[in-house]
């Protein structure tokens, strides 16, 4: 016998369909799913993230606390910003949850989402990066990241967030958005430079122009994601990083993947960061999964 799960695909950090970052959201009632089944579902859907919302203290329509887990096509991850935004959007806009703030119990602790007039604010822990010593593995990763270009000469700084397992590669002032968008790293070879124990993803970032304070792209082959279109968790690293450079706590960011997306970040005094973004649901239906 099959079990039916409400299922959505949401474009996160997007105010129109087929932009931003797509995440699949599955609603799971109190009878849980096994990790193996969740991983099989995520592999079948094959988006960068598939997440599972669990009822904790009420129904999807009225509860303020939920469980939340995130899976790439290859493994479970401890934090995903865009899938959290997508999850909140389904509760606020599809379940018509009446609470202005909902919270999620996750592997990264308690996360919060606030409903505003036309966007959602995610309340996440900040993941400050720190200087990293050059090693052969880091150099090999950069070689594959900038394969076939001379861009490696424009690297100004590298830092690592151990809590988020993300490497930050900051380019110099001369590095343009056009150059960032043209970057075509050898992600399959990047994956061979280490086993993922050092970091799970690489953020390439540079100063922005116009309304954007900074811009970025994010590559995570160690999580089975050659490039993630718009990455909330990366901005929990980028927000404190660029704040130290610019001397301000509120900034506008653009992730310059092909789909692209905007995130407004705000560092708070309590050691957390607000990520503001839109979300657009593009698919709504049911998943048929086997009873366990």
Structural account:
This protein is α+β, with helices and mostly antiparallel strands and 292 residues long. Helix content is 21%, strand content 40%. The chain contains 6 helices and 18 strands. The chain has an 18-stranded mixed β-sheet that branches. The longest helix is centred in the C-terminal third of the chain and has 15 residues, at 232-246.
Distance between the termini: 9 Å
Poorly predicted runs: none
Helical content class: 10-25%
Number of helices: 6
How much of the residues is beta strand, in percent?
35-45%
Let me know the largest β-sheet: 18 strands, mixed
Radius of gyration: 19 Å
Order of helices and strands: EEHEEEHEEEEHEEHHEEEHEEEE
Assign an overall shape: globular
Mean pLDDT: 95
Strand element count: 18
User: Structural class from helices and strands?
Assistant: alpha+beta
Compact description:
With 292 residues, this protein is α+β, with helices and mostly antiparallel strands.
Layout of secondary structure:
Layout: E1 2-12, E2 21-28, H1 35-45, E3 49-55, E4 65-71, E5 76-77, H2 81-94, E6 101-106, E7 109-115, E8 120-125, E9 130-131, H3 136-145, E10 155-161, E11 166-171, H4 177-182, H5 187-190, E12 201-207, E13 214-220, E14 225-228, H6 232-246, E15 250-255, E16 261-267, E17 272-277, E18 279-290
Parallel strand pairs: 2-3, 4-6, 11-12, 13-15
Antiparallel strand pairs: 1-2, 1-18, 3-4, 4-5, 6-7, 7-8, 8-17, 9-10, 10-11, 12-13, 13-14, 15-16, 16-17
